[in-house]
Design a protein that fits this description.
The chain is α+β, with helices and mostly antiparallel strands. Helices cover 65% and strands 10% of the residues. The chain is built from 13 helices and 5 strands. Helix 2 crosses helix 3 (51-68), helix 4 packs across helix 7 (158-194) and helix 8 runs antiparallel to helix 9 (248-278). InterPro entries: HATPase_C_sf (IPR036890), Sensor_HK_TwoCompSys (IPR050482), Sig_transdc_His_kin_sub3_dim/P (IPR011712).
C-alpha cells in the first residue's frame, strides 16, 4: 500500500504539486488578459461561466507568457524552483540568463509548458476536491440530495447513490495521479529545456579556464618567490653556522642576506595574497624585474656560499617590462634549482644575452656534488621546471633542461618581438 501511495502523496510528489500550483498562479495574469480580449464575444453569462471562453482565454494567455519569458531572470528563477521543488540536480540546470536564440527558445518552451500544466492542475485542484467531498458524504446527508447543487440526475437511483463515495475517492486519486504525472513530466523535461546549451557550456569552460589561469599564475609566483627564498635562507643559515667562529664578516653578510630575502619575500607574498583576497586580474601583483633586482638576486644567492658568475650581455633596462619580469622569475628559479639540487659551494654560471631577436638565459651548474660537499635539500621537484616552461610558452619561447657534459644546463629562449 505504501509503495502505491508514495508516488502519489510522497514528499517529492507534494513538492512537485506545489510547483504546478505556482505555475497556475503565474498563469492567472495571462488568463485575465486573454479574458479581456475574448470578452466582446461573451454573452450575458460572462467569460468565466463559459468553458469554451475560458479555454480561449487560456489559449491566448500562453503565447503572451512565452513572450514574457524572454525576461533575463526567468531562467534563473525557474531553475531555482525546479531544483528545490522538482528534485532535479543543480548541475543539470543553467543558473544564468538565457543568452542565445536556442537558450531563449528553450526557456520560452519551458515557461509555457510549466504554466500550461500548472494552470490545468491548479484548476483541477480547485474544482475536484469540493465535488469529491460532496460525493463522499452524499449518502449520509439527505439534505444534499434535495438541494440545488446541480448534481446529475443519475444520483437519484439508489445504486448510483451507493457508488457516489467510490466515485469521490476515485476522482481524488485521479487528481493526485494527474498532478504526479505532470510533475514527473516537468522534472524529466527540465534538464533539456532549462539545462545549459552548448553556448552556456562554452562560456562556463572559458570562465573555468580564466580562473585556472589566475590560479596557475599565482601558484607560479608563490613557488618561484617563496620556494627560492626558503632554499636561499636555508643555505645562508647553514653556511653562517659552519663559519660562525672563523669568519664573522661572512656571517654578518649571510644574516643581512637572510633579512633582505625574507623581507622581500614577505612583500611578494602579501601582494599575491592580496590578489587572492580582492579577486584582481592575473598580473596585477607587483613582481620584480631584471632591471630592478638582478644585482640584488645575485648578491643574495652568493651569500649562501655559492659562486655565481654572471655574464649579462644586454642592458636589463632595455628589455620590455613583461619580458624583464618573466626573465627575472626564470633566473630566480634557475639559481634556486642550483641551490636546492647541486649543493652548497657550487659554481654556477648565469648568461643573459640577446641573440637573433631572442633573449637567451642559460644557467649552468655541476650535475652532482663533489666529494666532501654536502648536497643541498632536495624537496619534491619538478614544479620549478614546469613553471619555467609555462612562462616561456606564454611568451612564445622554448625551454631546454638536462645534463650536458657533466653539468646541468637550463637554456631558455624568449622572443623579444612577442614580449613587446
Amino acid at each position: 500500500m505504501r509503495a502505491f501511495a508514495r508516488p502519489l502523496f510522497g514528499r517529492r510528489a507534494r513538492l512537485r504539486w506545489v510547483h504546478l500550483i505556482l505555475g497556475g498562479a503565474l498563469a492567472m495574469p495571462y488568463v485575465f488578459v486573454g479574458a479581456v480580449l475574448v470578452g466582446p464575444a461573451a454573452d450575458d453569462t460572462g467569460v468565466f461561466t463559459s468553458l469554451p471562453l475560458q479555454l480561449s482565454s487560456f489559449g491566448i494567455g500562453l503565447p503572451l507568457a512565452a513572450l514574457t519569458s524572454l525576461f533575463p531572470l526567468t531562467r534563473p528563477l525557474e531553475s531555482a524552483a525546479v531544483r528545490w521543488l522538482c528534485g532535479v540536480d543543480a548541475d543539470r540546470l543553467a543558473d544564468g540568463p538565457a543568452r542565445g536564440r536556442v537558450a531563449k527558445g528553450r526557456t520560452a518552451a519551458w515557461y509555457t509548458l510549466h504554466l500550461a500544466l500548472g494552470g490545468i492542475v491548479a484548476g483541477m485542484s480547485l474544482a475536484i476536491p469540493p465535488f469529491a467531498a460532496v460525493l463522499i458524504v452524499l449518502p449520509l446527508v439527505a439534505g444534499l440530495r434535495d438541494s440545488r447543487l446541480g448534481l446529475p440526475e443519475v444520483l437519484d437511483h439508489s445504486w448510483a447513490l451507493a457508488l457516489a463515495p467510490v466515485a469521490g475517492v476515485a476522482s481524488l486519486l485521479a487528481l493526485a495521479g494527474c498532478a504526479a504525472g505532470a510533475g514527473a513530466l516537468l522534472a524529466r523535461w527540465a534538464p533539456a529545456l532549462l539545462g545549459p546549451t552548448p553556448e552556456d557550456r562554452l562560456a562556463a569552460a572559458e570562465a573555468r579556464a580564466a580562473d585556472l589561469a589566475v590560479r596557475n599564475r599565482l601558484a607560479r609566483e608563490l613557488h618561484d618567490s617563496v620556494g627560492h627564498a626558503l632554499s636561499a635562507v636555508t643555505l645562508q643559515a647553514s653556511a653562517a653556522r659552519r663559519v660562525l667562529d672563523g669568519d664573522p664578516e661572512f656571517v654578518r653578510e649571510a644574516l643581512a642576506a637572510i633579512e633582505e630575502t625574507t623581507r622581500r619575500t614577505v612583500g611578494e607574498l602579501d601582494a599575491v595574497l592580496g590578489v587572492l583576497r580582492d579577486g584582481d586580474a592575473p598580473g596585477t601583483a607587483p613582481a620584480p624585474t631584471l632591471a630592478d633586482d638582478l644585482d640584488g638576486l645575485l648578491r643574495r644567492t652568493r651569500a649562501s656560499g655559492v659562486t655565481v658568475t654572471a655574464l649579462v650581455g644586454t642592458a636589463p633596462e632595455a628589455l620590455p617590462p613583461v619580458l624583464s619580469r618573466e626573465a627575472y622569475r626564470i633566473v630566480q628559479e634557475g639559481l634556486g634549482n642550483a641551490l636546492r639540487h647541486a649543493g652548497e659551494g657550487v659554481a654556477v654560471t648565469l648568461r643573459v644575452e640577446v641573440r637573433d631577436g631572442h633573449l637567451e638565459i642559460t644557467v649552468t651548474n655541476p650535475l652532482a656534488a663533489a666529494p666532501g660537499r654536502r648536497p643541498g635539500p632536495r624537496p619534491g621537484g619538478g614544479h620549478g621546471l614546469r613553471g619555467i616552461g609555462d612562462r616561456a610558452r606564454l611568451l612564445g619561447g622554448s625551454v631546454r633542461a638536462g645534463p650536458v657534459r657533466g653539468d646541468w644546463r637550463l637554456h631558455v629562449r624568449l622572443p623579444m618581438r612577442t614580449a613587446t
